[in-house]
Amino acid sequence: MADDIILSTRGLGRDFKGFTAVGEVDLKVKRGTIHALIGPNGAGKTTCFNLLTKFLQPSRGSIVYNGRDITNMKPADVARLGLVRSFQISAVFGHLTVLENVRIALQRKRGDSFDFWRSERVLDQLNGDAMNLIEQVGLANFRNHTAVELSYGRKRALEIATTLALDPEMMLLDEPMAGMGHEDVDRNSDLIRRAAKNRTILMVEHNLSVVASLSDTITVLARGNVLAEGNYETVSKDPRVVEAYIGA
Ligand code: ADP
After folding, report:
1. Cβ contacts of residue 117 below 8 Å, gap of 6+?
2. Residue with CA nearest ligand 1 atom 24
3. Model confidence pLDDT, tens digit, residues 228-240
4. pTM for the full model?
């Protein structure tokens, strides 16, 4: 059923000064699944991700989200439709606390004016909702820490919390486990699993054991094109995939 597909691309590609970073990618992401985009270095994962979130304009092809052609839309408009990318917020809101960061994200979602939320009742409600999210991502004990004080893994958890505050229908995660130790990886894997309960997730991720344990479907890119697709069992046994990784 076509409605099963929340996000799809057809012939999506991007060149940089004559160099083809992404060739012609056909991608279909099923609603309610965790879908991973993997591939050796230089395969075009980041470029593809930036095309999907509209941070880069494609050189060719189209992107359809929930039946709407979003190929020429701005990132903010795409986010309003429910397709939201998780951001590295530490650089921007690093000196605000965990609670403040999540509160700001919630306000953004509600479009509240600053005057409006100054009323005590509204502020209480906002704090309560923010704390719910903070608990969900396991940061309750860190609510008054500034983002810069958090460990790398907890920063990413905070980023996921601020993304969840927007209650997106689909979340795009760019290497959610990059640079993390085992403990953070385990904690954030659980977090992503929980976040996926009522939404779709597409992630670019290098850590193959995370990909294996979290993903329903995996698309393997190599040299800007789709090399293989399927569950981990299938793609990890595909000789073309093995060769692409070894030859990379
Ligand atoms: P991956 O994320 O899979 O490692 P990228 O999408 O970052 O791959 O890059 C794919 C290819 O496109 C690489 O060869 C890279 O050097 C090239 N590339 C990416 N972005 C640019 C850019 N802005 N200008 C020129 N070449 C780029």
Report:
1. 107, 123, 126
2. 16
3. 999 999 999 999 9
4. 0.91
pLDDT at 201 over 90: yes
The edge-to-edge listing of strands for the beta sheet with 217-222 is: 83-85, 170-174, 200-204, 34-38, 217-222, 225-230
First to last CA, the chain: 37
Which of 47, 55, 173, 225 best tests ligand 1's pocket when mutated (most atoms within 8 Å of CB)? Answer: 47
Are the beta carbons of 61 and 15 closer than 8 angstroms? no
Residue 1 has pLDDT above 70, yes or no: no
- Do the Cβ atoms of 170 and 122 come closer than 8 Å? no
Which pair of structure tokens corresponds to residue 219?
Answer: 């698309």
Ligand 1 in reach of 83 Cβ (< 6 A): no
Whether the predicted interface score ipTM is above 0.95: yes
Cα separation, 134 vs 141, in Å, equals: 9
Residues 148-178 as b/e (b if ≥16 CB within 10 A, e otherwise) read eebeebbbbbbbbbbbbbbebbbbbbbbbbe
CA distance 174 to 128: 29
Are 138 and 191 contacting, i.e. CB atoms less than 8 angstroms apart? yes
Cβ–ligand 1 contact at 99 (below 6 Å)? no
Out of 12, 15, 16, mutate this one to test ligand 1's pocket (max ligand atoms within 8 Å of CB): namely 16
List helix spans (H) across 111-238.
114-117, 120-136, 152-164, 182-195, 208-214, 232-237
Asked whether the predicted pLDDT for residue 115 surpasses 90, the reply is no
